[in-house]
Amino acid sequence: MDLAVIGGGPAAAAPRPPAIELRGISKAFGSVQANRNISIRVERGTIHGIVGENGAGKSTLMSILYGFYRADAGEILIDGRPTPIPDSQAAIRAGIGMVFQHFKLVENFTVLENIVLGAEEGHLLAPSLAKARRALTALAHDHELQVDPDAVVEELSVGHQQRVEILKALYRKAEILILDEPTGVLTPAEADHLFRILANLRAEGKTIILITHKLREIMAATDRVSVMRRGEMVATRRTAETSPEELAELMVGRKVLLQVEKGPARPGPAVLEVENLRVRDTRGVERLKGVSFTVRAGEILGIAGVAGNGQSELLEVLGGFAAGQGRVRLNGVALDLTGRRSDGQTRRAAGIAHVPEDRQRLGLIMDFAAWENIAFGYHHDPAYQRNRLVMDNAAVLAATRGKLARFDVRPPDPWLAARNFSGGNQQKLVLAREIERDPELLLVGQPTRGVDIGAVEFIHRRLIALRDAGRAILLVSVELDEILGLADRIAVMFDGRIMGERDPAETDERELGLLMAGVVPGARNGAA
Amino acid sequence: ALSAGAALANPGLVIDMGGKFDKSFNEAAWNGAERWKRETGGSYRDIEMQDEAQREQFVRRMAEAGSNPIVVLGFQNMATLEVVAPDYPETTFALIDGVVDLPNVRSIIFAEHEGSYLVGMLAALASKTGTVGFVGGMDVPLIRKFACGYAQGVKAVNPDARIIANFTGSTPAAWNDPVRGGEIAKSQISQGADVVYAAAGGTGIGVLQAAADAGVYSIGVDSNQNHLHPGSVLTSMLKRVDNATYEVFMAGPAVETGIVVMGLANGGVDYALDEHNAALISAEMQAAVDAAKAEIIAGTRMVHDYMSDDTCPALTF
Amino acid sequence: MDVAAILSILEGTIRLSTPLLLACLAGLFSERAGVFDIGLEGKMLIAAFFSAAVAALAGSAWVGLAAGVAAALVLAVIHGLASITFRGNQLIAGVAINFLAAGLTVLVAENWFRLGGRTPSLSGEARFQGLTLPLTETLAGVPLLGPFWGTVISGHALLAYLAFLAVPATWWILYRTRFGLRLRAVGENPAAVDTAGISVVALRYAAVMICGLLCGLAGVYLATALSAGFVKDMSGGRGFIALAALIFAKWRPWSAMGATLLFGFLQSVATRFPRLDLGIVVVPAQFIDALPYLLTVVILAGFVGKAIPPRAGGTAYVKEHG
Amino acid sequence: MQPLPKWADATLVPLLSILIAFAISGVVILAIGKDPVEATKVMVTGALGSTYGWGYTLYYATSFTFTGLAVAVAFHAGLFNIGGEGQATLGGLGVALVLLHMAWPHWSLALLAAMAGAMAFGAAWALLPAWLQARRGSHIVITTIMFNFIAAALLNYILVNVLRPTGQMDPATARFAADLALPKLHEMLGWLGIPFARRTPANLGLVVALAAAVLVWGLLWHTRLGFQLRAFGKSEPAARYAGISPVRVTLYAMLISGALAGLMAVNTVMGEQQRLVMNAAGGAGFIGIAVALMGRSHPLGVVLAALLFGFLYQGGAEMAIWMQIPRELIVVIQALVILFTGALDNMVRMPVAWAFRLLRGGR
Ligand SMILES: Nc1ncnc2c1ncn2[C@@H]1O[C@H](COP(=O)(O)OP(=O)(O)OP(=O)(O)O)[C@@H](O)[C@H]1O
Ligand SMILES: Nc1ncnc2c1ncn2[C@@H]1O[C@H](COP(=O)(O)OP(=O)(O)OP(=O)(O)O)[C@@H](O)[C@H]1O
Ligand SMILES: [Mg+2]
Ligand SMILES: [Mg+2]
Fold first, then answer.
1. H or E segment at B266?
2. Which residue has the higher pLDDT, A410 or D107?
3. pLDDT, tens digit, 9 for 90 and up, residues A230-280
4. Pairing between strand A489-494 and A497-502?
5. Residue A29 alpha carbon to ligand 1 centre in Å
6. Which of A31, A228, A229, A428 has most ligand 2 atoms within 8 Å of its beta carbon, as the pocket-test mutant?
7. Which domain covers residue D161, as residue numbers?
8. Over the stretch D268-305, which tens digit does the pLDDT of each residue have?
9. Strand order in A333-334's β-sheet?
10. How far apart are the C-alpha atoms of B255 and B23, rounded to whole Å?
């Protein structure tokens, strides 16, 4: 094999040019430099992984390769030939297909229509549809990609929608297939199925680029792996010759402390008691199918699971902005789940603080100044009122200055709009607002998503401190490391149910991974 | 050139919505003013109302600028003058189609029922089907007065005749909706009407057009509209707004105030006969109508005025 | 009510539905592609004026048609620039277009003709006359069918027939052609279209221009066929009724025809019976005038089948934020 | 792209937009064979050259302030209320009913009652579209458009069949009692010893409008409701997270918006016409859109933009009277202002941002 590729060194007289070569790609979104002078080579007939933290620029780079964005600078070579890719049409012509992180499907079209869209032959639809139907049968057979061609996409499961995306690429005769975080929404079993398909495709000589930040998948599925950090390409390794530890270190730029320092928990009485909680989404699909658990004072209950198994709905119901059925008690008092008195305000009044999973969409008003965001959600707080009608903006400003200082938010400018803080500082803004309330119960979703390692440690310390102050914390995270490091007990969610509870000291990633896939290992007992 | 009072004692004409070239009511007034201008070499100001809510502003502006006398068109301006005229006691206003009881207002009203009676007779004489139509503009007593006079004329000739009367609407928009006017006319024609009388301002253009398209007769109003569709416009009910305007302009600021009624007797209303409809009006028809006209002037033939008691002997609305 | 009256109402229905139908289909193309258009009214109005004005000057309805459509297309380009190229607010752009047309038509009319915002009356060649369809003679003797064919179906201007033919054509384009598939897709999820290698901008412009064309025809019909010339504000809210019909029809071509026929029927009835005496109650004309709007509100309230607009409708397609 | 400084976004961009709009209008005037310089002179002298002109300018500006504030409040809540025209129409009905059917000992009491009536009717007319948006998800733009037409038909019916005094041909109500007339601006200034033209319609409504602007400012930036309203307007999902009820905020925002639009009738119906006529709103509801866009939805901006449109309106009337330029020119200017400040905003902003980058880079 061609050793010269490793580390991006100069190619020795290689017999074949690489399937893809990117040279000096740069791309900025406004003031954010998403890609900085990136070069990478991907060999034909391999599975090439790209890893990096959230926001490292992985999706941006691949979108440039697919012609979705245009690079500010740089060059793309396909099979050794410089190939300008101004739009996706050009990428498709060059044999590139891409499965986006957020699927690009027309939801109320059928599978067939989605596949044909953009690849029609002639002006009339009927012949194209007929041809695609035949091709689909063949493709499905060859690659284990069965889907009903006449099903409406929005009625398919996420896994099947992903198949449609792959089929779309294959129907367009893609030789190079890019998959952007394909397993984030899949169960381990579905993920395994996907990797089998990818291996098949590789065997046919297709080239696959796999974006993920799950090191386990990289180690299992790829031939080579490139690491991105903060918009730059920091290294490329042969998978067989690297280790998860090395990749993790490359990703974050320094040695990673996987262990969070914390003392033993001293759990008190139950603060949150959830019994048989059920939630339906707007389409009537049951997303929580009878969930029960307890969080005690002075402990952190971690909820682990693949994204999309009901964790978000759980936070929404407890946070008061979605309806559910069942019984939820806070310090023994029942919470209203559907009625008039179930909204974010009553929850806050009852002593529940909530750091939402998606801070930009939910936790902050991006156009509001920092001080307005500090009042956000607590705009009924008597300390922020001058009288029954008028708010005391000066009091909010004063409070904000204190919080920005204590949480080391940079820059500490209460008038700066939230949009102009970096991701980590935005998260600190939310934490400053929620944690300092000294709540009975803190709901936290993905507290360190997209946050740099320094801020991660800070946030973790604050959460532990809150626990040690005798508060109850419900932590939802898709990062197993985070859950294992922070939680005093771990509950695993799968398909709207809790598959079991584990003590972090007595479990490991393998066992949790099985639970996350819906498999209950036989030996142990479930919930305590 | 436009500071208030710079132009002293030139007469002014306030044209109502619909515009000075509506081929009908407003245009008649403008024609009168133009005649005065031609004959005397004087100059006058005219402005066109643009908006329901701005009537007062426009009349006021005319008075502020020193025009005197000021002819104001349309019954809609009764309320306008009630407010504005007292503020300008030195200015004389002449209101056409309405009565305002103020010392500096000359209220000019027309005996439209008399003129309409004559064209009604012609309609009945020309009709072969015995069914005639009437398309009014806004449904107000004034327009019912037209309809009622018309119906009496029709019945005088043919007591069995059927009269289909419709109004375009109940708001001022009804004066300027030719599409709707045309639709109404088409509907009346489909019901057998072969003469349609339009007393509807700008809307009438659509009525006359529809009649011409269908090859039946129409009757114009206010101005002489015979030339619009020669051979199709049977005649026009002339309402000599031009004369009324001309007289006020001639008399100047000292024009007599109070109520002035313009009827058949003093040439205020009439039916139109010219080269465009000469072929349509036979000698017998003309003789019959002229006889009736003489009787009305002489007071031997009475035409009921709808507005006197809000009833009509010849037509139910 | 006798047969003649019913036939006359139906005949009026066809006539009055035609501009509504053309404008409704116009809106259908634009909104199915994800560009909301409350500027149908304005485009119709400006086409009405320029068609009448140019027809009056040139003495040819066909030249007028070209001018009217061209004027509507100019406004469509403005709408496209604002809502596609510059990613502005589509609704605000529509409002601006309506006022632009309301103002410009009168301004230019006054300047060209000095007729108080009107054009001269059109006659003869300057106007689209009614066509007598074949079979009219043959069927004349047949009871019911004869008069129905002769009065209701036959005798309309060419544009009216064109409008009703546009319904199956629209259906066919939308559901049976590549362009239609792409058009519907870009109104639902432009990112899907973009990643499929199709230009979102080009598709949306195409839709907006078709919208301009059809609105133009609606205006031309209004001024040169339904009536004989332009008067100020002659569209009289028809663009909004068409919009109401579009919602009523849930953005589907055949239903659009149904909705506009219903609204045309209401107008036809209201014209002939300003006070509709139903025996028990007298329905005032104002109520019938307001009925299309009331019905639309009821539909929008979702009590009678929910109207779900194209999902990407009303928003510009933005790939990168800056 | 570097964002524009706040001040530039709030002043430079709208000013530039209005300049473009004026420039194009100048071209239009040229195209119809008139002299734009002369037209400008006529407008300026007619609207600002005398206290008479100012009286009308301020009168119109008062109306536009109300409708502009109405649109602005809704904008802040992320709602586009095109229904100002209908709400103002209904507000007029409220004023008329209050003043016709009740006896009032003094105009000041009548004013309070008329304001209540105007606000109640205007708000009521906004309520159903708001409710439909909040509860049934129907687009408020469409429903408010429909409600404009329904309002026009309703008023038409009521004026023709219910409120028109017997024997009167005009579809309008009877006049209100003369002693209920609001003090005119010249009287109010007279109390202060400032001479001002009589016979202009500017009236106490002007003070009400300014008070409303101040109250709206306080509401938006100093009350909890305003905070919730603005938060909801910026991000609906975040507002839900914060426990801000979308239904309540939508309803409140539209009620306030409708009430403000309705209040316009105090200026026109009670302050000037002293009876209710057809089309009493006269398009002011739509001008409110231009005013709010131009004023960047800030009460101060709205007042200034309303003044500008008051000037255009009065100047336009003068132009119509003396230069035979149809008043529709104002509609064209209004359209251009809406187009450039509302829809083609990015087109104007891009070169400005570019110029700023150049300036910064140059330093
Ligand atoms: N369309 C866009 N407009 C503006 N900024 C963007 C856009 N897309 C991405 N960015 C920014 O570019 C940077 C890189 O984003 P990108 O999506 O490429 O990261 P990623 O490595 O794929 O992250 P993740 O693992 O979260 O998917 C981030 O700061 C992001 O906020
Ligand atoms: N839209 C914007 N306008 C102005 N400044 C911005 C904008 N977006 C980001 N910034 C500034 O650019 C800087 C870098 O932002 P970025 O999100 O890349 O930070 P970061 O390095 O990822 O930090 P963190 O680790 O805290 O997330 C921030 O300090 C922020 O103030
Ligand atoms: Mg990504
Ligand atoms: Mg960051």
1. none
2. D107
3. 889 999 999 999 887 788 778 776 655 556 678 888 889 999 999 999 998
4. antiparallel
5. 9
6. A31
7. 61-306
8. 999 988 899 888 888 899 999 989 988 989 999 999 99
9. A286-296, A270-280, A325-330, A333-334
10. 27
Task: Check residue D350 and give its pLDDT.
Answer: 85
In the numeric block, the tokens 């009026």 are attached to C12
Q: How far is the CA of A56 from the centre of ligand 1 (A)?
A: 7
Does A119 touch chain C if contact means CB atoms closer than 8 Å? yes
Q: Which of D156, D160, D268 has the CB atom closest to B53's CB atom?
A: D268
- Report pLDDT for D348: 86
The atom of ligand 1 lying closest to the CA of A58 is 21
CB environment A96-118: b (16+ within 10 A), e (fewer): bbbbbbebbbbbbbbbbbbbbbb
Query: Using CA atoms, how far apart are residues C62 and A16, in angstroms rounded to an integer?
Result: 65
Cα gap D311→D324, rounded to integer Å: 18
> Domain with D180 in it: what CATH number?
1.10.3470
SS3 annotation, C216-262: HHHHHHHHHHHCCCCCCCCCCCHHHHHHHHHHHCCCCHHHHHHHHHH
pLDDT digits (tens, 9 = 90+) for A374-408: 999 999 888 999 988 899 999 999 999 999 999 88
Mutate to test the interface with A, among C172, C195, C198, C317 (most CBs of A within 10 A): C195
Cβ-contact C96, C41 below 8 angstroms: no
In sequence order, the 6+-apart residues with CB closer than 8 A to the CB of B299 are: none
> In chain D, how many domains are there?
1
Dist. CA A33 → ligand 1 center (Å): 9
Domains located in chain A, CATH noted: 270-526 (3.40.50.300)
Tell me: pLDDT of B89 over 90. Answer: yes
**Is the shortest distance between the CB of A32 and ligand 2 below 6 Å?**
yes
Output the pLDDT for position C227: 87
Helix (H, G, I), strand (E, B) or coil at B236: strand
Q: Would you say residue D357 lies in a domain?
A: no
As given in the structure block, the two tokens for residue A470 are: 């005798």
Nearest-atom number in ligand 2 for the CA of A454 is: 25
Partner C contacted by D147 (CB < 8 A) = yes
Q: Does the pLDDT of residue D213 top 70, yes or no?
A: yes
A230 Cα to the center of ligand 2, angstroms: 11
Q: Using CA atoms, how far apart are residues B186 and C12, in angstroms rounded to an integer?
A: 9
**pLDDT tens digits for range C30-82:** 999 999 999 999 999 999 999 999 999 999 999 999 999 999 999 999 999 99
Q: Which residues contact B300 (CB under 8 A, 6 or more apart)?
A: none
Cβ of D282 and B52 within 8 Å?
A: yes
Are the beta carbons of B109 and B120 closer than 8 angstroms? no
Instruction: Provide the CATH number for the domain formed by C3-128+143-303 in this structure.
Output: 1.10.3470
Number of CB atoms found within 10 A of residue A123's CB: 13
Residue A436: in which H helix or E strand, if any? Answer: none
- Distance between CA atoms of D19 and B1, rounded to whole angstroms? 28
pLDDT, tens digit (0-9, with 9 covering 90-100), for B146-189? 999 999 999 999 999 999 999 988 777 788 888 889 989 998 99
Domain-embedded: residue D314: no
Paired residues of A51 in beta bridges: A227
Say yes or no for a CB contact (<8 Å) between C176 and A66. no
Place of tokens 């042969």: A238
- As to burial, measured by CB atoms within 10 angstroms (0-12 exposed, 13-18 middle, 19+ buried), residue A15 is exposed
Q: What contacts C185, CB < 8 A, 6 or more positions away?
A: A106, A109, A113, A117, C192, C193, C196
Q: Does the beta carbon of A419 lie inside 6 Å of ligand 2?
A: yes
Chain D residue with Cα closest to C99: D335
Q: Residues D318-326: what's their mean pLDDT? A: 82
What pTM does this model have? 0.87
- Decide if D29 is inside a domain: no
Does residue D9 lie within any of the structural domains? no
ipTM exceeding the 0.95 mark: no
